[in-house]
Amino acid sequence: MNVSNHLTPDHIMQRLLLINPHAGAASANAEDSAKRALSYSLIFSGVRCVLQYALLPFVLPMLGIAADAAIPLMLVLTVLAMISIFFSLRRFWQIGYTHRWQYLAVALVALTLLVAFMLLDLNVIAA
């Protein structure tokens, strides 16, 4: 067994994403499934952003509820968004999707922003 095969960038990503590198190739439907997973992930992120930055900060105060009351809900939605991104990445690597590295770049930016927002929310709760 050639050691260099285990050190390829794809193999490293498979290990990070908890994918069995010896799993069989995915079917032709797998690419459509991965694109649907990405679409759902993006829709979820869009809904989360609309809630967090448009509806909750303005609607809750109009109802007499402090906007800070929404922070626990936003933390849950942020964690779900992070999980969604992870599973989308995982799916793209499982099927060997052509544009998986480009999506990884986008996912890393999104994950960085989500972590920053989560830390800000936790800071508000701790204060």
Produce a short descriptive summary.
With 127 residues, this protein is mainly alpha-helical.
Can you tell me about this structure?
With 127 residues, this protein is mostly helical. The protein has 4 helices and no strands. It has helices at 9-16, 29-62, 71-95, 100-126. The longest helix has 34 residues, at 29-62. The mean pLDDT is 81.
Strand content: under 5%
Please write the string of helix (H) and strand (E) elements: HHHH
Radius of gyration from the CA trace? 18 Å
Number of strands: 0
Topology, pairings included?
Layout: H1 9-16, H2 29-62, H3 71-95, H4 100-126
Helix pairs in contact: 2-3, 3-4
Features:
127 residues; mainly alpha; 4 helices; 74% helix
